[in-house]
Design brief:
alpha+beta, Muramoyl-pentapeptide Carboxypeptidase, domain 2, three-stranded antiparallel beta sheet, 6 helices
Length: about 230
């Protein structure tokens, strides 16, 4: 057990007033919601431990598969496809959910972040701003064997898209058919603009990398969401 986790556990116990504690056989039992080592429950309301649980789960193929299977995201497993030169995927799934049609391939960890974001950020924002849910997320896909934009040609740094670890969101369609897109509404004075900013901020809670129109011109029409090595929210 690392010093960080020991300190974290001590903090949890000190905050006993925030949760209901039970004592069995002389042991303090921490409820799963406040236990950093408990399995991630996608349906559970997020708290300050969720990011830790999400990253730990995403890094463990067995835990990730179990958490994703317990979610509402429709998906199937796919075989690893390492084509070399920094492209391909490992530990990925095929997301074939009508909420995200057409289907696409995404790493299990990124797919887990996607379903957490949709459940705990996107849908609550849609209900708050428009009184109805998002029926479909419009997107530009996930996997593409290419470099980071501006990183040069051969030998340039590969994008997270090159390993199916990123997903590009272009807009949303509400249940009543109303369409909201970044290219048309990000700079508007309509309610859609506030909704899009709340959705972007929500993505930052569940993805390591979230880039949108405020990052650069290349992202003026979409949110780039990834589970890469760098934490950024722009």
């Amino acid at each position: 057990m690392t010093l960080v986790f020991r300190a974290l556990l001590a903090l949890l116990i000190a905050a006993a007033g925030l949760a209901v504690w039970a004592v069995h056989s002389g042991r303090i039992v921490v409820p799963p919601h406040w236990n950093p080592w408990a399995p991630l429950d996608v349906a559970e309301s997020p708290n300050w431990l969720t990011r830790h649980k999400l990253q730990r789960t995403a890094a463990d193929p067995a835990l990730c598969s179990a958490a994703l299977a317990a979610s509402t995201l429709k998906h199937t497993g796919v075989v690893d496809n390492d084509i070399g030169d920094g492209c391909g995927w490992q530990g990925a799934v095929r997301v074939n959910d009508t909420r995200f049609a057409p289907a696409f391939t995404l790493t299990c960890g990124a797919a887990l972040s996607l379903t957490m974001w949709e459940r705990h950020a996107l849908q609550p924002a849609a209900q708050a701003h428009f009184g109805q849910p998002v029926a479909r997320v419009e997107h530009f896909g996930s996997y593409a064997c290419r470099n980071v934009r501006g990183a040069g040609g051969e030998g340039g740094r590969r994008s997270q898209h090159a390993i199916a670890n990123a997903f590009d969101v272009a807009g949303f369609r509400l249940r009543n058919g109303r369409q909201i897109s970044l290219v048309n509404h990000w700079e508007s004075t309509e309610p859609e603009a506030a909704f899009l900013r709340e959705v972007r901020d929500g993505a930052c809670r569940f993805f390591k990398g979230t880039l949108g129109p405020e990052y650069n011109a290349a992202h003026r029409d979409h949110f780039h969401l990834d589970q890469g090595p760098y934490r950024i929210c722009r």
